[in-house]
From TrEMBL:
Its main location: membrane. It is a multi-pass membrane protein. GO terms for molecular function: ligase activity. Residues 256-384 form the O-antigen ligase-related domain. Residues 463-486 have a biased composition (Low complexity). One of its GO terms (cellular component) is membrane. Residues 459-498 are annotated as: Disordered. The lineage of its organism: Bacteria, Bacillati, Actinomycetota, Actinomycetes, Propionibacteriales. It comes from Actinopolymorpha cephalotaxi. The chain crosses the membrane at residues 46-64, 70-91, 103-121, 137-156, 168-195, 224-244, 256-286, 292-316, 377-394, 430-450. It is found in: Membrane. Pfam families: Wzy_C. Keywords: Ligase, Membrane, Transmembrane, Transmembrane helix. This is O-antigen ligase.
Length: 498
């Protein structure tokens, strides 16, 4: 019986079918059937889908009080993913570690760099607040690693990855819709979505404003975070639209519209420039028809936005054109001298993840600078390696696959990683739970796609079974991409400069 229970718990993660062995006893037959039924529904994609729902729909500002910033519902779910993944490593039959997966080494390097920084911090007396911050940092790192590894090793097929993509886009679209309501009404959406038993871990109780415009944050902790999250989801939503199945085109159009409409309303320079980064990655692989349609949509959307919200596009234009001349940029450049002083004192492992507190030191609106201070050069290299791994694995999946739809999805995941890598230089992203967890999830999906594309280069994103309603469906808009390669966490809720 214990074997049946073990198989039921871990078979979905390992790809092992419970009860499929030839020597199963009759008394375990019924239990094995139940195990197979449950396992077919509870796999890593299902667990990660629940994680996405919690991450997107529950306000990040509410936490389990004693845990502080590490106690967000999504953070607790991420730690549960880590425990599930590690538990599955106990036996060869349930281990998800099968075959080559470069992301494992990168994630281990990232975790070890955080542990080394924590150990170095303990070598000298530190204030209690900084020690608490370092403890929270380790909890967060454990959750981030678990999400990335569960996605990288646990997603069993390209069709299951497509299911996760659809659910992620749906969650992002709902958050975007909440942001639209908040922009026009000024209502603090998160205040009405509080979960009993959780406490607010943010000073913000009203909607922020810039140049007389409401800056929505929906379920995020800040408008910057909301803008970056929606920008990371946008390439995945565009993929769904370009490869929509019959009868689903309007749903995908609505999702893309919600994302495109809400991103400018965050009045965030990070989000606007992130859209440009995503475009640089995606446009070269599109056909001429898609490029023309995209340009027309962008032009008409800009005109419509100016008509519906007069002055918003001018504010956004000023944000971009004033880079280098405004107080926000000047404040960021002032950070370098402070970072240089802290770096000179602890250059290799820093002073500890989560210990550079704004109340004690200053706000660093640049995660790369923050990583240099908190985890030193080793931690910075680990962070860069993680982001680079996501990009390279997505691009590797594109090269390995011969399926046009899979190749395009791989490029879209690469665009999402590129947006994250860029935004890490514009605000201290690891201090924001939604954008950080999403980054590790996307990187894990890139690794899963690399593994699956290499295993089945001709595989598609829908099941091959003739009983599947999507197996014989073709995209509603046959916009084929070129066959050749183009040439081309600090507690959330603080005031931000951009």
């Amino acid at each position: 019986m214990s074997r049946v229970v073990t198989s039921l718990l871990f078979a979905p993660l390992a790809g092992h079918r419970p009860g499929a062995g030839g020597g199963s006893a009759d008394r375990a037959g019924r239990a094995g059937q139940v195990g197979r039924a449950v396992a077919s529904r509870i796999d890593p994609t299902t667990v990660l889908s629940v994680f996405v729902a919690i991450l997107m729909l529950l306000p990040s500002r509410y936490v389990l009080g004693p845990l502080g910033a590490a106690g967000t519902p999504a953070g607790l779910m991420a730690v549960a993913c880590t425990l599930w993944y590690l538990s599955a490593l106990i036996t060869p039959d349930t281990t998800p570690v099968r075959g080559r997966q470069p992301l494992r080494a990168v994630v281990v390097f990232f975790v070890v760099s955080a542990l080394a920084s924590y150990a170095v911090m303990q070598a000298e007396p530190r204030p209690a607040l900084e020690i608490n911050g370092a403890d929270r940092g380790l909890i967060l790192v454990a959750g981030w690693a678990g999400v990335a590894l569960l996605a990288a090793d646990g997603i069993s097929g390209l069709e299951r990855l497509e299911v996760l993509r659809r659910r992620l886009v749906t969650g992002g679209s709902i958050v975007a819709a909440l942001g639209l309501v908040q922009f026009f009404s000024g209502i603090d959406i998160a205040g009405y979505l509080a979960v009993p038993g959780l406490t607010a871990n943010s000073d913000f109780s009203t909607v922020l404003r810039r140049d007389e415009f409401n800056r929505p944050m929906a379920t995020a902790t800040h408008p910057i975070e909301l803008g970056v999250v929606l920008t990371m989801v946008l390439p995945l939503a565009v993929h769904g639209l370009l490869h929509a199945r019959p009868g689903t085109v309007w749903r995908h159009r609505i999702q893309v519209f919600l994302l495109l409409a809400t991103i400018p309303m965050t009045v965030s320079r990070s989000a606007i420039l992130g859209m440009a980064v995503a475009a640089v990655v995606m446009v070269p692989v599109w056909s001429g028809k898609v490029r023309v349609v995209s340009l027309m949509v962008l032009g008409c959307g800009t005109i419509a936005m100016q008509a519906v919200v007069p002055g918003l596009m001018g504010t956004i234009r000023n944000l971009v054109t004033s880079i280098g001349n405004d107080s926000s940029t000047n404040a960021r450049t002032d950070d370098y001298s402070a970072v240089l002083t802290a770096f000179a004192h602890r250059p290799w492992f820093g002073q500890g993840l989560g210990t550079y507190l704004p109340g004690t030191y200053r706000i660093l609106d640049n995660q790369y600078l923050g990583s240099v201070v908190e985890t030193g050069l080793v931690g910075l290299v680990a962070l860069l390696a993680l982001l680079a791994a996501g990009w390279l694995l997505a691009r590797g999946a594109r090269r390995a696959s011969t399926n046009p739809e899979v190749r395009h999805l791989a490029q879209c995941f690469a665009a999402s990683v590129a947006v994250a890598a860029f935004s890490f230089g514009t605000f201290d992203a690891l201090g924001f739970p939604m954008v950080t967890n999403l980054t590790f999830l996307v990187v894990g999906c890139c690794a899963a796609m690399w593994r699956l594309a290499r295993e089945d280069p001709a595989g598609g994103l829908v099941p091959d079974s003739p009983d599947s309603p999507d197996s014989s469906a073709s995209p509603a808009e046959p916009w084929a991409e070129p066959a050749t390669e183009p040439r081309v966490t600090l507690p959330p809720g603080r005031h931000r400069r951009a």
